[in-house]
Amino acid sequence: MAWTLEIPKRIKKDLKRLDKQIAKQIVRYITEDIARDPENIGEKLKHRKDNLHSAHFSNKYRVLYSFDVEKRTIQIAKVGHRRIAYDRI
Questions:
Q1: What CATH number did the domain enclosing 34 receive?
Q2: pLDDT digits (tens, 9 = 90+) for 22-77
Q3: How many CB atoms lie within 10 A of CB 62?
């Protein structure tokens, strides 16, 4: 059974702020790599009780997401440059 992606409107706004080429590559990374295997792509963030993971893209960008194995859903929480990706999460 395939995973279902949940991408909030604010993530789409974050992607629009990035360079178009980078944004396209990040969307492809989310829809192809993370959506295929969310359990093994990113690393679980330490010292957090929730299921938030961080996937590194191009050494400069981060995709923060959580997933529910039973429901087979992936919730994208934040996308951005590594310096600001972890702010306010």
A1: 3.30.2310.20
A2: 999 999 999 999 999 999 999 999 887 788 999 999 889 999 999 999 999 999 99
A3: 21
